[in-house]
């Protein structure tokens, strides 16, 4: 059965969605919408589908099984609620919401809907990431000792000429929220839940409201400590994950997507002899990317009886850690998991009661 897709927002990331959907027999773009009608028409001419005046018009016209939110982050809450109220599933680009309060609204809408809400986190889905997640959980690698999670990117001043960039109200935060979220989410999906974070954040150079740099030490429930750095000030750009276990170090270095060759495995002297052979077998040829996540998303849609990956609960775990990084940095204290509730200013906004540089 072909799943009928609506695309909301037809900018650059929507083209990535469309190109990957075009390779799938089980999905077809049937409608698109954008506030820029000319851009929407050009997108439809290139990728297919009718052009609707709005999301509401798209849903009223019908024939949609899932909408892909490729719109600016500040629009995700209203658009997600609207689609779910119509019983239509949602696949949202990151971040799915600008705060825990907004994401909890989406989760309540999902509970009342026949549709599901999922978030793009394509780096979870490469073959070697799946292998590492499974081996972490089954104990084959021993205990998790420590990990590194760095998003070291570069964005010049001109990048922020777009009025919605670099603002709390439109993006929800700086590189911690808008850029590092993918590496943070992938890291958490592998090493498991966190317990406490101590962080710093700064606006060092860019003409923005938000931070352009942050660093955090995160203690996991297992007791292992993870260091996280998010930067838009790094001319040699890299996305780097490192996992140190009793029996091995596993590293991933890439920029916006990885393949099997982006990984490195170093066995410890204590490692079982079979472990390196097991690692070699994880080279499946399947890297990260939207296609890898779409394959699992549309398989779940076809099954019809299970949530879509990455679930709203998964997304909340990641968003809660990001909120805690901001709270720790701005309040200058450790923040524990579960501490940011409805009484906290960081529940409704990542800037909390205000940034130190405001």
TrEMBL record:
**One GO molecular function term?**
nucleotide binding
- Top-level taxon: Bacteria
Domain named Gfo/Idh/MocA-like oxidoreductase N-terminal: residues = 4-112
| InterPro entries tied to this protein | Gfo/Idh/MocA-like_OxRdtase_N, Gfo/Idh/MocA_Oxidoreductase, GFO_IDH_MocA-like_dom, NAD(P)-bd_dom_sf
Keywords tagged on the record: NAD
Record keyword Hydrolase present: no
- Tell me the Pfam families matching this sequence: GFO_IDH_MocA (PF01408), GFO_IDH_MocA_C3 (PF22725)
Domain GFO/IDH/MocA-like oxidoreductase, chain residue ranges per copy: 132-244
* PANTHER family membership: D-GLUCOSIDE 3-DEHYDROGENASE, UDP-N-ACETYL-2-AMINO-2-DEOXY-D-GLUCURONATE OXIDASE
- What is the protein name stated in its UniProt record? Gfo/Idh/MocA family oxidoreductase
The organism's taxonomic lineage, starting at the top = Bacteria, Bacillati, Actinomycetota, Actinomycetes, Micrococcales
